[in-house]
Every structure is written in structure tokens, then in C-alpha cells.
Amino acid sequence: MRIAIASGKGGTGKTTVAVNLAVALAERESVQFLDCDVEEPNAHLFLDPQFSDRETVSKLLPVIDEAACTRCGACAEACEFGAIAVLAETVLVYPEICHGCGRCRMVCPANAIREEPHELGVVESGLARGIPFAHGLLTVGEAMATPIIHRLKERIDPERTAILDAPPGTGCPTIAAIAGADVALLVTEPTPFGLHDLKAAVGVARSLDVPTSVVINRDGVGDDGVERYCRAEGIPVALSIPFDREIASLYSSGTILVDARPEWKPRFVGLASQLKEMAK
Amino acid sequence: MKSILFLSGKGGTGKTSLAGAFAVLAQDKVLADCDVDAANLHLLLAPEIVDDGIYQGSKLAVKDEAACVACGRCREVCRFHAVSESCAIDPYLCEGCGACETACPADAIELVVQDTGRWYTAKSRLGPLASAELIPGEETSGKLVAEVKEKAAALCAEAKAERLLIDGSPGIGCPVIASASGVDTVVLVTEPTLSGLHDLRRILGVVRHFGIPAYLVINKRDLNPTVAEQIAAFAAEEDLPILGGIPYDPKVTEAMVAGRSAVEEEGSPAGDAMRRVFDRLMNAIA
Predict the structure, then answer these.
(1) ipTM for the complex?
(2) Does the beta carbon of B253 lie under 8 angstroms from any beta carbon of chain A?
(3) pTM here?
(4) If one looks up domain B2-56+117-285 in CATH, what number appears?
(5) What are the residues whose beta carbons fall under 8 Å from the beta carbon of B115, sequence distance 6 or more?
(6) If one looks up domain A59-119 in CATH, what number appears?
(7) Residue of B nearest to A180 (CA)
């Protein structure tokens, strides 16, 4: 089973929920953790994995053989992303815009284009408390996060309950993380910002045909808009975590809630049971 | 016109709350919400839409099943694993590059333009606003961000505005890079948590990569004074000027629920700290 932990709004507590779910569940069954927020991964700060493997993720960038190039412009015309500009004297390739699709090389009539790998980031994997753990790291300055997320998802072991910590938002990286999940657990806070972005996240999950359940974090601040929305839409609120300065303080120092406050363990186990029921 | 962009790396550190405060305090400004994945600034502004439209930023490969000869060439050339064994194209994996269209010997594949999102410009209680909402499940948020910036630039020209305040998105990837291109100043908003510090290092790397002057604000500074000190030490090492700390204050959320900024609340310690942060930045970039 694959559980994606997502949210439209950032900083609502995705990583807190994902890490606690993994630790609580690992006492009962085989779990796997994949931190799919490759722009700003944080789960390793809590789970402290020992990495044993590091894999580079690249895209292929066109390299123009200026001697063979006839400046015909076919490559620039074929590129859907505007990553190539053909000038009178030379051809410019914009590495940060290029998606590495290879279409320019396919259309070049002079065979003047070859391709070279360009590093986008890495996937690191290992063990954290006996739990198989992997995360991706987008190289600073690079734009394309999704190839790293896809590479991470190749690590999914169907024999284990996979917990995927998704990036915030509703764009391509979030879609890449949620697609194929059995259930999306959406973490929100009970505020107008939280509600607005929860609606967007529900829209993404529905467009991917993934059932949703909600965790309300920092319950007690803000208003009851999220609860009313969930009731109206028939989305179950599987867990509420109250606003509590001690919980916030534990998070700030990288301490896992179920370690410091064991009474939370059965609540996360109960959350997992509800998700399994939904995924059936 | 000088632009100020709010970024954070980590989400939920208070970018929009601070951008909203600056929107109250700054004169002659235009506002832009470039967090098109999860735009929230409008919730503080009571905007009245002046103009809007659908932005078509991406394409998808669409196959004519009648013409397809199931030769598998599309699957061979697709580097995004978007073509299945049975030659069906997965719209969520398709990048819209058109390699399959080029490769198809039967002319059965065509790239079709997709609606990516809706942009709008508005009048608001705190000034003109340009914003957009990505259609859930659609891609290319970076291009939609560029579209919002273009609309905001037009609003600035029209209003002869001195400042453009841009609310950015979390992360360090495509939409962040699109929002950062060409801006004059970045304000980084962090919080005193290990995640906040970790993510600050990475977003600062991006901002420095593009050579943009940056300033730091530590939100909820009192939440963990030890980590706040670590952040201050990191900022000193990196020559990253700190504009100030903002205390945790329930009035920030109360103001948000009422559709206002904390600087509009009487006796809000966070609101007072936001004013000091604003004054310091204005002095620093004057």
C-alpha cells in the first residue's frame, strides 16, 4: 500500500505526520519511507538515516557540433520549451530550460547534435531505525524536480507500506509524488490559508483519482472552515493534532512526537488503519 | 520600480503574512502573488477582479487511435515513461515535448495546447494585484509565474508604482526560479526549527546563484531560542543581514481569519516587529 502525505500549503505538518506514521507503524509491519520533497527534504532531520547508496539523476543536454551545424534552425523550431536559440554565428542552449527530451537531436538534418548528461540531483538511500529510507536532493539552481521524484518512486517495494512525503503545492512535483498512491493524506491547518490550499490539494488528488483523508494540525487556532468543508465534501478527518507549544518545540529540535509522547503512538496506528480501510 | 520578493525554501514560515504586512506599510506599490500552486495573498486583500483570462502554458501529446499502428516508436523515444506497453499516453507523465510526434511514422500524434491556469488582475484595498491559480493537476507553474510577473509589470507601469511586492512559493525549483528572475531584493523568511535552517541554506544557495541581494527575517523567533541562535550564526557566516525577529503571536492568525494583516491589529507584538522589519529593509535598500 502507498500512502502519500501531501498538502497544498507548505509548513502544515506533512513531515511530522509522515515520520510519526512511519515510526508508529514500523513496530507492527514492514514500512518504507520515501521523502519526495526533493527541493526541501526534511524527514532525514528526524529519522537520522544511515545512507549506504547515492545515485546521480541526470537529464541529457544537447551539445552542438558547430562545425557540422548549418544554422538551419530546425532544432529551435522543434523545441517546445524555447531552450535553443539559433544565431547567425552560433547556437545557444539554455540548460535550465531544456527538459532533456532529445527532440532537437531527432530533427537535426546535419547530425550536428549529440547529448551529454547534466546532473539534476541525487537519490540517497539507506536505513533509518530499520526502516528503508530514501530521499532526493535537487541540485541548488536546478529547476526540474520531477525526474528525481520518479527515480525515487522506482524504489517502492510492493511488499511494504510505502509512506511518501510529498512536496507542498499543486504543481508537477506534487502530482509526481501523489500519482499512483492508494490514498492521499492531506495535512492542513484550520485557517483561511489552510482551507484555501486544502481545496486545491483535494482537486489534485481527485484529478488523479486518489481517495483523500485529512489531518488537521494545530487544531484550535484559526476557525472551523476546514471542518465544515470536510463535512460538506464527505472527506474524513482522520486525525486532529492540537496546537501545543510543546509539540511545536519538539518539532523545532528534530524530535519525533511518538518518541517523546508515546500516547500518540496508538493514534498514528489508528490513522493507518483508517487509511487502509479507505484504500480497500 | 524596485521589486521585493518573499521566499523561504520551507513552506509555512510566514511569507504571505509578511508580504501582507508590507502591503499595508508600503506606499505606491503593486502586489503580485507568484505562489500559483497555493495563492493566499488575496485572502488579506478583498480584491475586485478587473481582468482575467485562461493561460495556456503547456501541451500534451494526444493520439489518434484510428491512425495508430502500435509500432511502439513513441514509447522508445519518450524519456518521461509516459507511453505504456499498449502505446497509451499518460497525461500526467507527458512533458509535452513532442518527441513522440516527431517519431511517429503514422502521423497519429499531435501536441495539443492545455489550459494551465487562470490569471487575474484586481483592485484591492491595499493596491493593484496580479495573481493566478494553477488548475489542479496541471503543470508548468513556472510559466504561469512568469505570466503573473508580466501582468504585474504592466500594472506597475500603469500606476507608476515605486514598488512591486511579490509573494513567492516554497521550495527551490521551477516556480521559485521563475519568480526570482530579474527581482531587485529577496526577503527570506525562516523559522527557528532544524527544518527551517536546513531549507534556508538551500534557498539562500539559489538566491546567491542568481546574484540577488538577500535579507533574512526569523519568524516565531521565540519558539526555539537555541535554533534561532544557530540561524543567526549561519546568517553572520554568510553575510546575510538579519532584518529582525518576529515573536509568535496568536494575533497573526486572528488577523488572517478576519482577512487582515497583523500590522492592522492593535497591540500585536508580531505586528510591531513586522513594522520594524519593514523600516529596516526600507533603510537598507534606500
Answers:
(1) 0.94
(2) yes
(3) 0.96
(4) 3.40.50.300
(5) B54, B55, B56, B135, B138
(6) 3.30.70.20
(7) B92
